[in-house]
From TrEMBL:
<dbReference type="InterPro" id="IPR000674">
    <property type="entry name" value="Ald_Oxase/Xan_DH_a/b"/>
</dbReference>
<dbReference type="InterPro" id="IPR016208">
    <property type="entry name" value="Ald_Oxase/xanthine_DH-like"/>
</dbReference>
<dbReference type="Pfam" id="PF01315">
    <property type="entry name" value="Ald_Xan_dh_C"/>
</dbReference>
<feature type="region of interest" description="Disordered">
    <location>
        <begin position="1"/>
        <end position="20"/>
    </location>
</feature>
<dbReference type="GO" id="GO:0043885">
    <property type="term" value="F:anaerobic carbon-monoxide dehydrogenase activity"/>
</dbReference>
<dbReference type="InterPro" id="IPR036856">
    <property type="entry name" value="Ald_Oxase/Xan_DH_a/b_sf"/>
</dbReference>
<dbReference type="InterPro" id="IPR046867">
    <property type="entry name" value="AldOxase/xan_DH_MoCoBD2"/>
</dbReference>
<keyword id="KW-0560">Oxidoreductase</keyword>
<feature type="domain" description="Aldehyde oxidase/xanthine dehydrogenase a/b hammerhead">
    <location>
        <begin position="34"/>
        <end position="143"/>
    </location>
</feature>
<keyword id="KW-0500">Molybdenum</keyword>
<feature type="compositionally biased region" description="Polar residues">
    <location>
        <begin position="1"/>
        <end position="15"/>
    </location>
</feature>
<dbReference type="InterPro" id="IPR008274">
    <property type="entry name" value="AldOxase/xan_DH_MoCoBD1"/>
</dbReference>
<protein>
    <submittedName>
        <fullName>Carbon-monoxide dehydrogenase large subunit</fullName>
        <ecNumber>1.2.7.4</ecNumber>
    </submittedName>
</protein>
<dbReference type="Pfam" id="PF02738">
    <property type="entry name" value="MoCoBD_1"/>
</dbReference>
<dbReference type="InterPro" id="IPR012780">
    <property type="entry name" value="CO_Mo_DH_lsu"/>
</dbReference>
<dbReference type="InterPro" id="IPR037165">
    <property type="entry name" value="AldOxase/xan_DH_Mopterin-bd_sf"/>
</dbReference>
<dbReference type="Pfam" id="PF20256">
    <property type="entry name" value="MoCoBD_2"/>
</dbReference>
Length: 795
């Protein structure tokens, strides 16, 4: 069989999509735009019951008694579960992602407002909610620990007295860098600038709240769980370990997810309770939280009290950075990060600069607040690290009377220094930092903006220009260094070609809005020349996808994207062998062009991938050792993280009468290596920039002195809208990762990580005439106004 017709490689598919990388509309939009997505709360399982959770009204109290008799008497109630029920099943406590334990339902004490106290399972969700009011809980109030800075006071109440012998609220001490060397550098420096700052507690607040449906089949012993989660395979293993159900009898399905942003990484008590509810009633049980529950009880982010110090020469060479952090982890240490890193990747706080020494110390403490941590597009605490170093560089510029852009250009790592090993042990893979910053300055018209600012200052108008430069490390593993609860961070991927050349790609990662169904099809399309519309991307079902650690820390493209590329390359290599067999030539005689192997010097002799796939499934005699069919499966263990970076410039105007900040312009130059789909990358950047404006100007999950959460609704916890966001101005540079098979670096969190310091630096720059050196986020009108009056801010 030979092919006679030679078709030149096309760059667009029959549907008009790019073959390989390029802009294309998302494949998933066909269902989302028509309202045909299937989110958790859309799912109805036959016979399903509904659950609601009773939560603690107070931050810290001993539980004296729980009377459930009236709730149980409610005609539509099927079960009422309390801590005592769970204790009898040995399920009252579950492991957290940080090797702590968390109460599934409170047994002895409640430790934060909103903590789970009881669950009602009823025939409909209204009855379940009604019955909550029939449960009578007697609390004996205890003094709460609200301010992390007082958590280690000798007279502070001990929150975690569930652990025998615990006498304080200390969780961990952790350090990185070389303290002695840093101290030397600081002692010898001309200039040292010190600043305390708070990265306030914020919340990912996805549009869809968290929820689950658990169905335990009493006959087969099989547990099916539909849940909003970013890491279905890791969840399955954890359910198996916690509930003692054999792992092969558990199936976790993540339907369409309405935003995760880190909020859907962990397992919440409600998930375990739905499983228990299903075991007790023999029916499927659905539990979906409301907005207040989401904001008050699920994984918060940040809450880092940081004291930064930066040392430099008089002429502006940065020598070192030291940081002391007090980390508020709430009542249970449930932060999600690789096990070896209790402060996540915070020790990348040396940022994008060539330093002589660096040192940080992080102390984690318990407080009477919701557990969690890290979540919200954070790259495992790189958000806090970038904020710290970029604020410190601006403070240094202020001290030296230097231009903040010039100071950065003078100290940024130079392209020839890569791969660069940082003073806290990271190996940055590749970068051209000055190029990115110069490009951002060019788009902004930096010199012109400074001129405009001078003129405005003369007129008494407040305009500020803020810069931030960031480096992220994303794409965890390698598995030997990184794990979640002992599960190494590598990801599987399976690519299967059907006889007609259409393909299925099975992934362990889980899209929550990032467009994986499109971009992963494009990655395979890039390698095999198959139109992206002919590649079906399957994920979110543990029974139908290979094992892997899921989507967070912008790891999908760096890890599973690499796995998909390698799988496609293996298919391509196999196709070469089969083509050679079909054409009776040597593989060395064959050359690849988009989607096709052909004979060197005779392009009309060749086989497209679709033709090879038919041959591989057909009757052609395959060479010795070559199996039929055209499949590949890969487990990709990344050799290193990838290091995306970017330069951001924010321009603000501040109303001197009200303190209102208007973000007038925002320029973002990002480098994530080649862009699989530039449109999706820009969408990721736009979303992250909006997040950054939100955090910098309006968001905080705040608590009063009794530990009452005052950020539990969208009336108090504000989301930025198009009204608060400018028309984003984006640019790119492309520095491929040397170790990713396609050079790709992650992008999903870059803008959330990089933008808050740019906004804050701009506001502080605007307030220069008032002599304001620093003000903590959120820079609400009230907080800005108070900073202008030299008064302490409200927190
Ligand atoms: N991409 C690309 N070219 C690159 C890099 C990425 O085209 N060089 C594409 C990817 O293929 C993918 C998207 O951009 O479609 C994001 O890729 P990646 O950086 O790999 O990040 P993940 O897919 O792993 O997504 C996780 C990241 C995280 S951790 C948070 S938090 C966050 C974020 O993504 N949550 C999001 N972006 C989000 N976007 C939406 N809409 N919803 C969320 O919940
Ligand atoms: Cu930190 S939020 Mo994302 O890594 O899922």
């Amino acid at each position: 069989m030979t092919s006679t017709q030679h078709t030149a490689p096309s760059t667009t598919s029959p549907a008009g999509n790019p073959i390989g990388f390029g802009r294309m509309l998302r494949k998933e939009d066909a269902r989302f735009l028509r309202g045909q997505g299937h989110y958790l709360d859309d799912l109805v399982v036959p016979g399903m019951l509904h659950a609601a959770i009773l939560r603690s009204p107070v931050a810290h109290a001993r539980i004296v008694s729980i009377d459930t008799s009236q709730a149980e008497a409610h005609p539509k109630v099927r079960a009422v579960i309390t801590g005592a029920t769970l204790e009898s099943l040995n399920l009252a406590w579950m492991p957290t992602l940080s090797a702590d334990v968390q109460a599934v339902l409170a047994t002895d004490k409640v430790r934060f407002q909103g903590q789970e106290v009881a669950m009602v399972v009823a025939e409909d969700k209204y009855s379940a909610r009604d019955a909550l009011e029939l449960i009578d809980v007697e609390y004996d109030d205890l003094p709460p620990v609200v301010d992390a800075r007082k958590a280690l006071d000798p007279d502070a109440p001990v929150i975690r007295d569930d652990v025998e012998g615990r006498t304080d609220n200390h969780i961990f001490d952790w350090e990185a860098g070389d303290k002695a060397r840093a101290d030397e550098v600081f002692a010898a420096a001309d200039v040292v600038v010190t600043q305390e700052m708070l990265y306030p507690r914020v919340h990912p607040a996805p549009m869809e709240t968290c929820g689950t449906i658990a169905s335990m089949d009493r006959v087969t012993g099989r547990l099916t769980v539909w849940s909003t989660n970013q890491a279905p395979h890791a969840h399955r293993t954890i359910y198996a370990l916690v509930a003692g159900i054999p792992e092969h009898n558990i199936q976790i399905i993540s339907p369409d997810i309405g935003g995760g942003f880190g909020n859907k990484v962990g397992i919440y008590p409600g998930y375990v309770l739905a499983v228990v509810g299903s075991i007790l009633t023999g029916k499927p049980v659905k539990w979906v939280e409301d907005r207040g529950e989401n904001l008050m009880s699920t994984s918060f982010a940040r809450d880092y009290h940081m004291k930064g110090e930066i040392a430099a020469t008089r002429d502006g060479r940065i020598l070192g950075v030291r940081v002391d952090v007090l980390a508020d982890h709430g009542a249970f240490n449930g932060t999600a990060q690789p096990t070896k890193f209790p402060a996540g990747f915070f020790h990348i706080f040396t940022g994008s600069y060539d330093l002589e020494a660096a040192y940080c110390k992080v102390t984690g403490v318990y407080t009477n607040k919701a557990p969690g941590g890290v979540a919200y597009a954070c790259s495992f605490r790189i958000t806090e690290a970038v904020y710290l170093v970029e604020r410190m560089v601006d403070l240094l510029a202020d001290e030296l009377g230097a231009d903040p852009a010039e100071l950065r250009l003078k100290n940024l790592l130079r392209p020839e220094q890569f791969p660069y090993v940082s003073k806290t042990g990271w190996e940055y893979d590749s970068g051209d930092y000055p190029r990115a910053l110069k490009k951002a300055m060019e788009i902004a018209g930096y010199d012109e903006l400074r001129r405009e600012q001078r003129e405005k200052r003369e007129r008494g108008e407040l305009m500020g220009i803020g810069i931030s430069f960031f480096t992220e490390g994303v794409g965890a593993g390698p598995r030997k260094h990184m794990d979640i609860l002992g599960l190494g961070m590598a990801d599987g991927c399976e690519l299967r070609l059907h006889p007609t050349g259409k393909a299925q790609l099975r992934l362990s990662v889980q899209t929550q809005g990032q467009g994986h169904e499109t971009t992963f099809a494009q990655i395979v399309s890039h390698e095999l020349g198959i139109p992206p519309e002919d590649i079906d991307v399957i994920h979110g079902d543990t029974s139908n996808t290979p094992f892997g650690l899921g989507t967070y820390g912008s790891r999908s493209t760096p890890v599973s994207g690499a796995a998909a590329a390698v799988a496609a390359q293996r298919v391509r290599d196999k196709a070469r062998v089969i083509t050679a067999a079909a054409l009776e030539c040597s593989t060395d005689d064959l050359e690849w062009e988009q989607g096709r192997w052909y004979v060197k010097g005779d392009p009309s002799q060749g086989k497209t991938i679709a033709e090879v796939s038919m041959l591989a499934h057909g009757t052609l005699e395959l060479p010795e050792g070559v199996e039929g069919h055209l499949d590949a499966s890969v487990v990709y263990d990344p050799p290193n993280l990838t290091y995306p970076f970017g330069a951001y410039i924010c321009v603000v105007d501040v109303d001197s009468g009200t303190g209102q900040v208007t973000v007038r312009r925002f320029i973002a130059v990002d480098d994530c290596g080649p862009r699989v789909n530039p449109m999706i990358v820009e969408g990721q950047v736009h979303g992250g920039l909006a997040d950054g404006v939100g955090m910098a100007l309006m968001q905080v999950i705040a608590f009063d002195e009794d530990g009452n959460c005052v950020g539990g609704s969208f009336m108090d916890y504000l989301l930025p809208t198009s009204m608060e966001c400018p028309s984003w101005e984006t640019g790119e540079t492309v520095t491929p990762s040397p170790h990713h098979p396609l050079g790709l670096k992650g992008i999903g969190e870059s803008a959330t990580v990089g933008s808050p310091p740019a906004v804050v630096n701009a506001v502080i720059d605007a307030l220069e005439p008032y002599g304001v050196r620093h003000a903590d986020m959120p820079l609400t009108p009230a907080n800005v106004w108070m900073a202008m009056q030299g008064r302490p801010m409200r927190t």
